[in-house]
Amino acid sequence: MNQIRDVRPLHRSFGAELLGYTLGDQVDTSEAAALRAALDRYSLLLLRDQDVTDERQVALARAFGELEPVRSGLAGTAARLIVLSNVAPDGRVVPESATAAMNNAANRQWHSDSSFREVSALASVLSARRIPDEGGETDFVSTRVVWREMPESLRARVRGRVAVHDLRFSRARVDPALASTVDPLELPPVRQAMVRRHEPSGEPGLFIGSHVSGIEGMDDVEARALLDALTEFAGRPEFVYSHTWRPGDVLIWDNRFTLHRGRPFPADAPRTIVRATVAGERSSLREAV
Ligand code: OGA
Ligand code: MN
Which of 111, 118, 120, 277 could disulfide-link to 68, CB 3.0 to 4.6 Å? Predict the structure, then answer.
């Protein structure tokens, strides 16, 4: 029987490696319920030593819900997987000016996947297919833990606020040419509460990230200063779990209650990761505090 036998913590305050679970071509409903319960509890799940195929990765992601479409400007597969790779079809590593490499650079900012969508993503399922010998880790923080540890003075500046999320903003920070790969009609700016309530625990979580272009009712200078302070606080080393990828690793994270970022790796090192993004549910968008 394919069951989660045990869990091993990844960080003292969140994240768990699931032991005993093996990816297969199907995930039955009791397995799906156990996976979802683990995600709700730990926010970040790791499966090691898996024999990953596109089909298995899709089956795992579908256990959490529908997959988001791959947005235009990104390489994808028919099965709605996003391929983030700096390797060209001829096998060579693309130059840093290539869109694919710039997208990797953009992912080095703390973010939540698809926070720029009106209904932002529930989860992401990421498998590393080709990993550099050094660098290329993926860092995570739990935004519930961040909120819990945040000084009241900082919380007070966030409560009740709405942020504007815009994919073109985070792309423009890397290169204006990257922003122009995003169609503003496909992905217009959206509003998101800056604090979300986690069900079933009832805990609040901070909801920010690189796509935030501004805060409603705040001028740009003040908003940027607040966002910088929040991002700096959230990224404090004691909150961060940094994942060093091994072949066969699969990570699942809750985009509603974590932030993540890619870490640098040598520009000439090939790296290919494949992501399935699970769409969020409008009904789960509950503003908090
Ligand atoms: C992602 C992402 C970071 C990385 O795939 O959503 O942000 O380490 N990846 O490549
Ligand atoms: Mn991401």
Answer: 277
Ligand 1 mean position, distance from CA 260 (Å): 7
Identify which of 231, 226, 271, 277 has the alpha carbon closest to the alpha carbon of residue 256: 277
Give the model's confidence band at 71: pLDDT under 50 very low, under 70 low, under 90 confident, else very high.
confident
Q: Is the dihedral of CA 179, 122, 277, 142 positive or negative?
A: positive
| For the CA of 263, the nearest atom of ligand 1 | 8
pLDDT, tens digit, for every residue of 32-43? 999 999 999 999
- Residue that is written with structure tokens 């204006």 in the block: 176
Q: What is the pLDDT of residues 161-186, one digit of tens each?
A: 999 999 999 999 999 999 999 999 99
How many beta carbons lie within 10 A of that of residue 162, not counting itself?
A: 14
Domain segments of the chain: what residues? 6-279
6-279 homologous superfamily: Clavaminate synthase-like (3.60.130.10)
Q: Which helix (H) or strand (E) holds 61?
A: helix 54-62
Distance from the alpha carbon of residue 93 to the mean position of ligand 2, in angstroms: 21
Region for residue 226 given its phi and psi (left: phi exceeds 0; alpha: psi -120 to 50; beta: otherwise): alpha
